[in-house]
Design goal:
single chain, 341 residues, mainly alpha, three-stranded antiparallel β-sheet, 13 helices
């Protein structure tokens, strides 16, 4: 249980990281709010994604395969990303790598791992990967926007000190800052832990990301409804919007993952590359689409989409079929066998 204070408010709020405790078969179990909120965000993302897949006439059986594969890939990717950047914690105890229940999952790793796994499943199941990306762009933002509140219940993913009205303080934030003073000093970061009598408020960076993700969902959904020009567009918008937010917010955080012994924040660098790459691709493809306009994506969505050449071939009746159809409408006496003209 932690008591959280906000600068603009006089009273504190009790926040418990544990949602449920019970005993079963002689063993004590705990269900953490972090897991509950992550699961709730995931559920809403899946429900929304399923609804959009139905509207876009995407094969739901194949989508379930992608969901399973992407979920597994996401967990593996999130863990590997964290472990690689914190290898000092695991090099002497490699089996601890598998203890995901103790924490240590990185969202960028989850996105990379999930998308790679989804790509493989799409190739095997013959599902359009670009359309899946557009669907995932909106679903990701729902899950991220809700899941970030799990950081609040754990009192983690916060930033440097601030005097803004929404700055927060708790004994857990103060303990974390006090325990990492040497690390902060080595990286040139100033952070004051404060005390119950002299609180040193910090940026609630989890809140910034949650609100930005939910706002980005609304923006991308509006693009989907009114300005969707080509498959993959919504995911490029996601890369620009989320990458921009993460670049700036990551610069405020005290628990960033760094590249080796440098002061380069891994997620901040990745965010910058993501924004530049996605923005460039988005501009180029929109300009190309403007020169060669296509039908809105809703009219192109079919379980198996054909290329232009295949569509022409599919729609063109074979010569033999045309002859048979013509023969069917001619009077029977007008059909003269070959050689008897």
């Amino acid at each position: 249980m932690a008591t959280v204070y906000f600068k603009a408010l006089e009273r504190g709020f009790s926040v418990d990281a544990t949602a449920l405790e019970f005993r079963l078969f002689g063993h004590d179990f705990q269900v953490q709010w972090y897991g509950v909120l992550i699961a709730f965000g995931f559920l809403l993302a899946v429900l929304f994604g399923g609804r959009m897949a139905y509207k876009w006439k995407m094969n739901l059986d194949k989508m379930i395969d992608v969901l399973i594969g992407g979920t597994i890939g996401g967990v593996v990717g999130a863990r590997l990303y964290f472990v690689v950047l914190h290898w000092d914690l695991y090099k002497d105890a490699p089996f601890d790598v598998f203890k995901v229940w103790e924490g240590g999952l990185a969202i960028y790793g989850g996105l990379i791992g999930g998308l790679l796994a989804a790509f493989i499943v799409c190739r095997v199941r013959k599902l359009d990967f670009l359309k899946l990306l557009d669907l995932a762009a909106m679903s990701f933002l729902i899950g991220q926007g809700i899941g970030r509140w799990g950081n609040f219940t754990n009192q983690e993913a916060f930033g440097v000190n601030t005097n803004l009205p929404w700055g927060m303080w708790s004994e857990k934030t103060a303990q974390y800052i006090a325990a990492h003073q040497l690390e902060f000093a080595a990286r040139g970061i100033e952070a004051i832990p404060g005390s119950i009598g002299a609180k040193a408020y910090v940026h609630p960076t989890f809140l910034y990301e949650s609100l930005w993700c939910l706002l980005s969902f609304v923006i991308i959904y509006l693009v989907c409804r009114h300005a969707h020009k080509f498959s993959g567009q919504l995911m490029l918008c996601y890369g620009v919007l989320y990458g921009t937010e993460r670049f700036f917010v990551e610069g405020l955080r005290l628990d960033s993952l760094y590249l080796g012994g440098s002061n380069v924040r891994a997620s901040q660098l990745l965010s910058a590359l993501l924004v530049v790459g996605c923005l460039a691709a988005l501009v180029i493809l929109l300009l190309r689409q403007k020169k060669r306009p296509k039908l809105p994506i809703e009219t192109l969505e079919t379980p198996t989409e054909l290329s232009e050449e295949e569509a022409l071939t599919e729609n063109a009746a074979p010569e033999e079929d045309v002859l048979e159809e013509n023969a069917a409408v001619l009077p029977q006496e007008a059909i003269v066998p070959e050689g008897q003209e």
